[in-house]
Queue: 4 jobs
Job 1
Amino acid sequence: MPNNKTKKDAVDSNHENLAEQIEAFLKAGGKVQQIPSGVSGQTSTSGPRQIVLSHKTS
């Protein structure tokens, strides 16, 4: 089981990596858009809800 120092090092590394990716995105002309709370990226929730596993043949 990793010790606390190893976990902290991994977290720090992830934060640095994310910061580098964000910086590269912004330098490439990317823009950050704030999305209001409650808005979903899911386009449609309608449609069939049941899955047919097999069809009985007569």
Job 2
Amino acid sequence: MSWLHQARQTPWKALNELRRYAALPWARLIFALNGIAWQEGWRIYGAPIIQRHAESTIRIGRDLTVRSWYASNPLGVVRRTLLCTWARGAQLIIGNGVGMTGAVLVAQTRIEIGDQVWIGANSSIVDTDFHPLAPEARRIDPSAGKSAPILIEDEVFIGMWAIILKGVHIGRGAVIGAGAVVAQDVPARTIVAGNPARPVGQV
């Protein structure tokens, strides 16, 4: 199928591609200013917001797809993708072939995402509570919330509006249902859904 035929069948996709190419210099600049090396095969539909602590690490593999424009995904992007390392020594490690749409990734300790992970529209992966749960502790230090690393293995599919919380390990090939709130580990090739997320099937 020719590019022209595709453009006639799905004109919004053609417009997104033209817009992506036009915005490419700006996207590359945003990553460069944050010390993140541009990799082969990146497709950036709207530069993400990057908040990188000066003494932290953000490392991303090849073939990344990021969608931050509203019209770049038919599910609708309600916010720009945000990549954040919140504290000194924090690590945000993203493998090859990862795709995300309007996602929020906040690492205070470490978030590691394997290869070929798809992060559905408007999902959040956050390894910190940000604030203490006890009101007395919040009065002393409102930023002293608990934190624990997150590990998401290869080929995980995270549905739209899912929330992955601190300390979670998601096994290879697992599926996280739309809107799920994941606060416990998910075995490989297990489908979970709900709040709190519970196993509902196997891949």
Job 3
Amino acid sequence: MSLLQDNFGRKFPYIRMSITDVCNFKCGYCLPNGYQVDKSDNRKFLHLDEIKRLAMVFSKLGVSKIRITGGEPTVRKDFFEIIKILKEAGIKKVSITTNGYHLDKKAQMLVDSGLNGINISIDSLDRNTFKSITGHDRLPEILKGIQILQDLNFENIKVNAVLLNNINASEKDFNSWREFIKINKVDFRFIELMQTGDNLDYFRKYHISSKIFKEYLDKNNWIYQTLGKDAGPSLNYINPDYKGKFGIIAPYSKDFCKSCNRLRITSKGDLRLCLFGNTGISIRHLLQKDDQIEELQDLILGQMKFKKESHYLELGETGLTKNLSTTGG
């Protein structure tokens, strides 16, 4: 049982842990100019011993699931060692979010690592649209990687796409995903475009409400499905004639934060209570020795009283999040 609880009664069995800010894609909604080194923060990314101590503390606090994020987490040479460390520390479910770079070559290693789940970002099934969004012509290798994962009987495959007006938000786009999940056991979710500190112009140009996809699902008789306690924020829909599921992540919707169940660790050792919050502290000074673990646990527990009831995205407040790669969106 999670010991992490805030003043609103929400429990937190789920941690999103970024291990790098570096990304090798150039997605328009996140890093349109590619990864740029933040010269104002010369701290190195969390190293293995620090990650191990973090995992040990969170395991003691009842955390059952850690999702490894970035940037692109697989760019780290010790990526597979990190999965092993989290498992050894007692984390039951370890999953990753990835852009799918070289997924066809990594699929077997991912399965062998004991990974429990994978979220892959694919913003379009149209090769040209995918290339224009990401700056990479890699859709075929990613789809091949998904097929390999399925052939290896890897169960928990999710695909995320950011919903972009006049780019991938037409009925034709929705139908292409419908055909994809009809024959693939994959959960596909549209994420409503979120405003960050440096993407206001892009947000104004391409934001569209996720209601458009919900209306499509309602019209086509998809059935809403309830969630498990360590699930993410997706509203999931099923159809008995399809192998996969559809989902919607709608951060601007009413009561989106009511079921929040996750905290975040940045790649440089900051605890963030919310992706778009203004509150966050460095806990890295307590990750240096094994005998600091009890003090670290007390610090994390003490921070819970500062978690707010909601983000304020609808008011245009983006908090400390300059772009999604800096916090592990």
Job 4
Amino acid sequence: MTIEGLQKGPELHPLQKAFVGESALQCGYCTAGMIMAANALINTEPEPNEATIRKNIANNLCRCTGYDRPVKAVLKAAKDMKEGINA
């Protein structure tokens, strides 16, 4: 699976939408890795907490966001996915 494979046609995946909506992407260096790690996490743990998300994305070096925005994005996407919302 690749970052491009997450979206369905022109429709972005909820994680991709949440990263845009929460301004969790800046330079783009870490974005794909964080989204893919978050997707794997949500697939195994549909309601992750902040600590679990931080641990799960920690191997993705991000110098722009300080990890706060990506964590918010993952929390939002997990909620939206649970509720069946395609953010």
